[in-house]
Design goal:
The complex is a heterodimer. Helix content of chain A is 36%, strand content 18%. Chain A is of the alpha+beta class. Chain A has one domain: Thiolase/Chalcone synthase (Peroxisomal Thiolase, Chain A, domain 1), CATH 3.40.47.10. Helices cover 50% and strands 11% of the residues of chain B. Chain B has an eight-stranded mixed sheet, with helices on both faces. In chain B, strand 10, helix 13 and strand 11 form a beta-alpha-beta unit. Classes of the chains: A alpha+beta, B alpha/beta.
């Protein structure tokens, strides 16, 4: 098998995913375009050497529809020989795109590829592409469909995470994200989004709330109590009949933020790097995806981590840094509990609770984040993973070279 | 022009009036005969240029009552001996489509068709109306319009799941179809199901006026650019109905009722395609249900058997019917007050007796409260209320009982008190008057010893709350006469409840079997099963209330005392189990006596929802390995089914219909099973016995099958064949 190396990783800052968010005026196509342009410019890349661009996107309709990867390739003025494909593995789409792009290299069929993702949640709202899972009675009924937030609350209920536990985790995410920004730890990857005149529209993650306190978090209303009360708690109990009552502990302050953003990761063989004069930063050691129980939906990361570790011949303790998307606080708390991972080794620069989760892009974003951190703290191995809709998990292990 | 089941009269304007009027029946139904005629009428209307439009009405008080369910049961069990299973199923599918194509022909015949709905139109009856271009109903508030198929485990198979959503939108149509709700004409008009409500006398003329003046012969869904009201599943705003509806469906049915699930599916799939494809989709699900044992069992128990019991199939035949005009109710507590209410509601004079006037008056007040509630819901009038209340006389005076046809005793469950009121009442009533006891536990034969005429003494067991519970369990004591039984049943029919007849035994039939469900919950708890798992499993089984919650309701203290009494009675023979220790710990050591004292298996915080008592884990160590919920569900169902079989074997039960209808109506036994004996038949006696043996080995001898069951398993018999009520009657 051919080794696949990471040569570069870029991301946009994350804009608030609302009408008053800074990136709301920027099209999803433009967000993807600017990351591809950054890859091209930073590496003085002859784009004709790129074989394929794989972009994750979770709501591929309207401007995000119709294979946004190929359209972004054209808009970023890559050579017309570069193909593009959009993939959707819900919240892990960005990481899935990197894995798919890496797989092309590892399979020996392509020499240089780009994996990344894009999501303008302010312009193409979550759920805009619909889908049958929650709607078609045949599958909704069979699989005990629950909204994600109910799944997150269910995890907290089963694993006994209190409102204080999840709020404390959220506080820490905010604290770490602020420190990371203050110390410029994201500088290597973040490329400001600019307008047609070259003026900066956004150069920081604007969703952050470093001023949060336990008191301010405690005042937030649980987000999923109402739909739980309506019917979904009962559905959850039928799937998990050992639960007497659901604890609704999640709210806007301890769940991932809705934001706009894009990311891209440049991948290739050792030979293509040498040919183009690029320095490899890390090697893709293994990756994996799994399916897990779909109703609770968000327990996949621990299972996929075990699978990816096994494929790499590694153990939990062999990983220096973990990066797990902070979809909801309980997802990370469960992961740490099940795999016995110290908080100091995971999400060391904060995560989506503080900075937001641009669905299709996040996986590629946090892979870049953890690579930067490996270099900054001079560590060797990192595992990136995300929980995924409909009960899945995707993970990627990298090691520095 | 006339056919066997209908006539067609064409007036001077060329408007045909089809009058559906089946000979020798009180109601029109959709069956092979009437549909053949209907098809010919439609052909005539289509081909005869002189006919400009069609009005459909009925020659009976009701419009069309629906499909002939007895014919339907025949088709499910495969009458006509087809060559293969596939052929049989295809036959069902195609015969269903045939009826649908008839309705499709009607609505696309090119001539305006109006339904003049003169009375109740249910199921197929309403489906015929929905295939008309215009629906006018007469303003009789008793008229019921609806698609009730789901109530017996079926779905509307005549286009109802397709036309109703297309007419009023999925969000409005789904609850009506899934719950089988019937509406009166005013409500149906408000929902957009009928176009107009007019006085009876104007019904036909309004239908004809519409044909002459408006007469649009095209259904909305056949028009170009038609969009379903509220949108389809993937239209803007249309998805929420489904996302929420799917969750709601699971919340309310626990996945136990295939009909509701299939209704959701065929509406979802059907509204996304043209109506003819939708009708095919509907028919596929209809056939699937028709062959589902759950539907067959539900049709049998909830419709056919309960109807037979309501018609007093179990009444001794050769005793003339008596009209019960006056009764005495002894004891004006919760039960007595309820019995007084339902009796007065049926026009029966009631003497309501208690020890003091205040208690008797309070008993009558119960009727006032219920009637006021009915008035606020527009189900009763002030005059009606006055008339009903006039019939109830609260008193302490036994003299007033003179002239009563029947006495129902509902005093405290104490032999001495019961004996006392029995003597006092019998002193006043005629020799042939019946004395009924509403006891739920004490054997009737024993109580009858206090009576001077034990042959007229009988058990008449009501369920709480009396005004809402449809069943009455009639218990024959050893000496109870046929005449007493017959008169009691005549009374039950008059108050419009369903009677079952059982023989004497401790707990009779219903309390006895129901007790096994409650007891099994405590047994699980004492085994270390997580309390929440027990409770959820109980509800998921299809029982209306979870077992530990029921223990609290009934009172743990009572349960404890009953066990102590049994212990004393049986002496060395009593087999003490872990549940005994548990109850003793709860009641004696912890003072947790049940809901009444706010402490039981649950805590009952004031103003808050009850929560399982966390202290339970101190008393019983939860097992590390918890059972699968399906195993718990099976235990709940099988322990009850087994006890029912025992009742049958011990001659407490003598009729399969009493067993199944009584279980569902009496204590809410999982209705989708069709009842405990239907459950055994469906599982098969052999499998049932094997499973019971396995459960007995694992959880205790109470699961050991009876000799009768083993014999049936050996012979491959079913209860409904071996004890066929039709054969027994013959």
């Amino acid at each position: 098998m051919t080794d696949c190396y990471i040569y570069d990783a870029v991301r946009t800052p994350r804009g608030k995913g609302k009408k008053d968010g800074s990136l709301h005026e920027v099209t999803a196509l433009e967000l993807a375009t600017q990351t591809l342009k950054a890859i091209k410019e930073r590496n003085e890349l002859d784009t004709a050497e790129v074989d394929d661009v794989v972009l994750g996107c979770v709501s591929p309709v309207n401007e995000q529809g119709g294979d946004i990867a190929r359209i972004a390739v054209l808009n970023a003025e890559y050579d017309q020989s570069v193909s593009g494909v959009q993939v959707n593995r819900f919240c892990a789409s960005g990481l899935e795109a990197v894995n798919t792009a890496a797989a092309q290299v590892m399979a020996g069929q392509h020499d240089m590829t780009i994996g990344g993702g894009v999501e303008s949640m302010s312009r193409v709202p979550m759920g805009a592409d619909k889908g049958s899972w929650a709607t078609d009675p045949s599958i909704a009924f069979k699989s005990y469909f629950l909204p994600q937030g109910i799944g997150a609350d269910l995890i907290a209920t089963i694993d006994g995470f209190s409102r204080d536990d999840v709020d404390a985790y959220a506080m820490e995410s905010q604290k770490r994200a602020k420190q990371a920004w203050d110390e410029g730890r994201f500088e290597k990857s973040v490329v400001a989004v600019k307008d047609i005149n070259g003026l900066t529209i956004l150069d920081n993650d604007e969703h952050m709330r470093p001023e949060s306190t336990m008191q301010s978090l405690a005042s937030l209303k649980p987000s999923f109590a109402e739909q739980g009360e309506f019917a979904f708690d009962a559905v959850a109990q039928q799937r998990y009949p050992e639960v007497e009552r659901l604890d609704h502990v999640h709210h806007a302050g301890n769940s991932s933020g809705i934001v706009d953003g894009a990311a891209a990761v440049l991948l290739g063989t050792k030979e293509i790097g040498e040919k183009l004069g690029l320095k490899p930063r890390a090697r893709i050691k293994s990756f994996a995806s799994i399916g897990s129980e779909p109703a609770i939906m968000l327990t996949g990361p621990s299972y996929v981590t075990e699978k990816a570790l096994k494929r790499a011949g590694m153990a939990v303790g062999d990983i220096d840094l973990y990066e797990l998307n902070e979809a909801f606080a309980s997802v990370v708390l469960r992961f740490m509990k099940v795999l016995n991972i110290d908080h100091d080794k995971i999400n060391v620069n904060g995560g989506a609770i503080a900075m937001g989760h641009p669905l299709g892009a996040t996986g590629a974003m946090i892979l870049g984040t953890v690579l930067d951190e490996l270099e900054r703290s001079d560590k060797e191995t990192a595992l990136t993973t995300l929980c995924v809709g409909a009960g899945m998990g995707t993970a990627t292990i990298i090691e520095r070279v | 022009m006339s056919w066997e089941n209908m006539t067609l009269d064409v007036d001077g304007d060329g408007i045909g009036l089809l009058t559906w009027d089946m000979p020798g029946r009180s109601m029109n139904v959709l069956g092979a005969g009437s549909l053949k005629d209907f098809g010919e009428v439609i052909q005539k209307v289509m081909t005869d240029d002189a006919i400009k439009g069609l009005v459909i009405t009925s020659g009976k008080p009701a419009f069309i009552a629906g499909a002939d369910l007895s014919e339907m049961e025949g088709s499910a069990s495969g009458a006509g001996a087809p060559k293969s299973e596939e052929e049989r199923v295809r036959g069902q599918f195609e015969s269903g489509l045939k009826f649908n194509m008839l309705l499709r022909e009607l609505e696309t015949c090119g001539k305006p068709v109006a339904a003049a709905i003169n009375g109740t139109a249910l199921g197929g009856g309403l489906e015929v109306c929905l295939a008309c271009h215009y629906r006018v109903a007469s303003d009789n508030p008793k008229t019921q319009l609806g698609l009730p198929e789901a109530k017996v485990g079926l779905l509307p198979g005549g286009g109802g799941t397709q036309r109703l959503p297309r007419l009023i939108g999925c969000a409005a149509a789904l609850p009506l179809i899934m719950q089988g709700t019937a509406l009166n004409p005013q409500k149906a008009a408000k929902q957009g199901i009928v176009h107009k409500v007019v006085p009876e006398a104007e019904l036909i003329s309004e239908a004809k006026r519409w044909i002459k003046e408006e007469g649009d012969a095209e259904q909305p869904w056949d028009k170009k650019g038609y969009r379903i009201p509220g949108g389809g599943p993937y239209d803007r705003g249309g998805g929420i109905t489904w996302v929420m509806g799917n969750a709601m469906l699971r919340k309310t049915t626990y996945g136990n009722f295939p009909a509701q699930k299939y209704i959701m599916r065929c509406v979802y799939e059907g509204v996304q395609v043209p109506i003819e494809a939708g009708i095919r989709i509907e028919q596929r699900y209809f056939v699937k249900l028709l062959n589902d044992p759950a539907s067959r069992n539900m049709i049998r128990s909830l419709f056919l058997s309960s109807q037979e019991l309501n018609k007093l199939a179990r009444r001794p035949k050769d005793i003339p019917t008596t009209d019960v005009k006056k009764i005495g109710v002894l004891g004006a507590g919760m039960m007595g007050a309820g019995i007084a209410y339902v009796s007065a509601l049926a026009g029966i004079e009631v003497i309501l007796i208690d020890r003091d006037q205040e208690a008797a008056d309070k008993g009558k007040d119960y009727s006032v409260k219920l009637l006021d509630k009915a008035i606020s819901k527009k189900r009763q009038s002030e005059e009606g209320k006055a008339k009903i209340l006039e019939l109830i006389t609260p008193t302490t005076d036994y003299d007033l009982l003179k002239g009563s046809d029947l006495i129902i005793e509902a005093v405290f469950e104490d032999r001495a008190i019961k004996a006392d009121v029995t003597a006092k009442a019998e002193a006043q009533i005629a020799n042939d008057a019946i004395f009924g006891s509403n006891t739920s536990t004490l054997p009737i034969t024993g109580l009858a010893e206090a009576s001077s005429r034990p042959d007229n003494f009988i058990g008449i067991h009501f369920f709480s709350p009396v005004d809402r519970m449809p069943l009455v369990e009639i218990i024959r004591g050893e000496k109870t006469s046929d005449a007493a039984l017959a008169r009691s049943m005549d009374y039950v029919k008059k108050i419009r409840k369903t009677p079952i007849v059982v023989n004497d035994s401790r707990g009779f039939y219903t309390s006895r079997v129901f007790g096994t469900y409650v007891g099994e919950g405590v047994a699980m708890l004492s085994e270390g099963v997580t309390p929440a798992l027990i409770e959820n499993a109980g509800k998921m089984t299809g029982m209306p209330v979870a077992p530990l919650a029921l223990n609290d309701e009934v009172s743990l203290e009572l349960g404890y005392h009953v066990r102590e009494q049994t212990k004393k009675d049986l002496g060395d023979k009593y087999k003490s189990g872990p549940a005994d220790t548990l109850l003793e710990e709860m009641v004696v050591k912890r003072g947790r006596k049940g809901k009444k004292n706010g402490k039981g298996f649950y805590d009952y915080p004031e103003g808050g929802q009850k929560r399982l008592w966390p202290g339970l884990s101190e008393i019983i160590q939860e097992a590390d390995e918890q059972p699968d919920v399906d195993e718990l569900k099976k235990r709940f169902l099988y322990i009850q089914a087994l006890e029912t079989a025992r009742c049958f074997e011990e001659n407490v039960l003598t009729d399969v219909r009493d067993a199944d209808v009584g279980a569902i109506m009496g204590w809410g036994f999982a209705p989708y099973t069709g009842g405990p004996l239907s459950l055994i038949d469906t599982v098969g006696a052999k499998t049932f016995v094997e499973e019971c043996d396995r459960l007995a080995q694992k959880y205790g001898e109470r699961f050991l099958p009876t000799p009768l069951l083993r014999e049936m398993a050996d012979k491959g018999e079913t209860f409904y064949k071996r004890f066929d009520p039709k054969k027994a009657a013959a």
